[in-house]
Amino acid sequence: MIATIGLFVLGLVLICLGGDRLVDAAVAIARRLKIPEIVVGATIVSLGTTLPEILVSTTAAFQGSASISVGNALGSIICNTALIAGMTQLISPAKKVARSSILWRVLLFFGVIVVMLVTGRLTGQFQRPLGVALLLCFVFYAFMNIKSPGDEEEEQEEEKKEGSLVKELLTLAVCAALLYVGSKLLVDNGIALAEMLGVPERVIAVTFIALGTSLPELVTSLTSIIKGYGNVGLGNIVGANILNILLVIGIPATITGMPVSESALRMDAPLCILVMAVLTIPLIIRQKSSRLQGGALLAIYACYVVSQFTMV
């Protein structure tokens, strides 16, 4: 019991340390390369914070359990958008978000998830051709981010260029590793503690497991707000959601193909579309968000959690 508590606390410490320094390194890179904070959040930071989901889904595919990847990816998107983005936008709404920074990313997300939803409805599974298509979309996504990050205008502050780009990139990699190790320690030992205390299995599923792989996004987003770099956290959420469908589903679908549950098609995927629409459409139209959006997203997440408890 004492060892479990100790490892749980250690995981929390590693997540806090990793998230804190990761945000600083990401902002330093953005300013050094003169690219908007939301872009570096949607690319480098989101790749680092999505590593837990990618590793879990890839491992599951090689172990013959690829089907859990769909739930892992869609559940993370719902948690990232409704809970984490809802919380951060309620605390500190995004301001001065360039439409060009977010429009094509949002269109890519909606286009891909609609195709996945239709494919799942028609075939009942995500087969290898869809997996290959998703990975090709990731290549396109990476190319677009590399090709024209500097074309997207967003207000930035000047900062002295201390240290080197290589050092900041190395810091990002180390912090991403700390986030992964910390979240694994926190989740594994949190589940063990819950079981020791007699918490029901279903409660554990919709709390520790659902939140587990989203902890890096949560810590990064909250740290971004505290440090005054809210757009990094927002970009992280949008980018992480895109990577969840392109890689977390794309990799196992390419390796083995996988069945899709009726609940994922009937509830989870449409809910992903809903919460992303609530978060991003006002951003595209008004180029800023509001606390009303944050409150609406949190209300949707609360209803989702309650539905998990009441489902038969």
The CATH class turns out to be Mainly Alpha
- Tell me the series of helices and strands, N- to C-terminal: HHHHHEHHHHHHEHH
Instruction: Write down the Rg.
Output: 19 Å
Main sheet strand line-up: 1-2
Count of helical segments?
13
- Could you please say which CATH topology applies here? A middle domain of Talin 1
The CATH architecture term is: Up-down Bundle
Gross morphology: globular
How many DSSP-defined strands?
A: 2
CATH-assigned homologous superfamily:
NCX, central ion-binding region
Cα(first) to Cα(last) distance is 33 Å
Q: Roughly what fraction of the amino acids lie in strands?
A: under 5%
Q: What percent of the residues sit in helical stretches (DSSP H or I)?
A: over 70%
> How many separate structural domains?
1
Q: What's the story with the biggest beta sheet? A: 2 strands, antiparallel
> Which runs of at least 5 residues are low in confidence (pLDDT < 50)?
150-160
Description:
With 312 residues, the protein is mostly helical. The protein has one domain (36-150, 199-310): A middle domain of Talin 1, CATH 1.20.1420.30. The chain is 81% helix and 1% strand. The protein is built from 13 helices and 2 strands. The chain has a two-stranded antiparallel sheet. The relative contact order is 0.24.
Topology summary:
Blueprint: H1 2-33, H2 37-49, H3 51-62, H4 68-91, H5 99-123, E1 125-126, H6 128-147, H7 165-196, H8 201-212, H9 215-226, H10 230-248, H11 250-255, E2 258-259, H12 262-286, H13 291-310
Antiparallel strand pairs: 1-2
Helix pairs in contact: 1-2, 1-7, 1-9, 2-7, 2-10, 3-4, 4-9, 4-10, 4-12, 4-13, 5-10, 5-12, 6-10, 7-8, 9-10
